[in-house]
Amino acid sequence: MILFASAGMADTPLPGKDKAETCLGCHAIEGYNNVYPTYKVPKVAGQNADYIISALKSYRNKDRVHETMHANASALTDQDIIDIAKYFESLK
Amino acid sequence: MKIIKVLLIILTIPLSIQNVVADYNAGQEKSQVCAGCHGADGNSQITMYPRLAGQHRDYLVYALEGYRSGDRKNAIMSGFAKGLSDQDIRDLSEYYSMQKGLKTLPKK
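Output (structure tokens, whole complex):
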């Protein structure tokens, strides 16, 4: 079992990949617009993990104001946030 | 009638565009202040600071305006953004958005 697990490591997706599924609805659509105010939903693939962690925590505790991001971040544990951030950073 | 309509549209275009026109070269020049944290081309190697390279131009404008107005809070960024004019914000956003870096998330 251990051998099997280590042999498959390279192909094992990061845990954040599944956890980031909700993010795809906005952040995986090229040129998708936020409204009121209007600006394109920021690109997050390749973003630095530590920055994503602080951004998601700020949304969660409402230091950073965005209704949808607050709602989504509120559902995340600290570990979820770390996993998602590492997944985004891996997409360089 | 059609010609009048077309003329009217052409004449009103300048009014609908914001007065500030982004200047890439000016943005590159102004970005030297930002490079210490965000990297020369916006690909920050210090992971607590966001990469800006390739980010959407209008999102960067929104973010900088937010720091400037205080809507978005960050001790470091509010200090820098306070000194920026509308022109500075557009120039910087133009420069960083044109660099190679960030991407849209891949679909499933």
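Chain A touches chain B at residues 20-21, 23-24, 27-30, 37-51, 54-55, 63-65, 88-89, 91 (CB under 8 Å).
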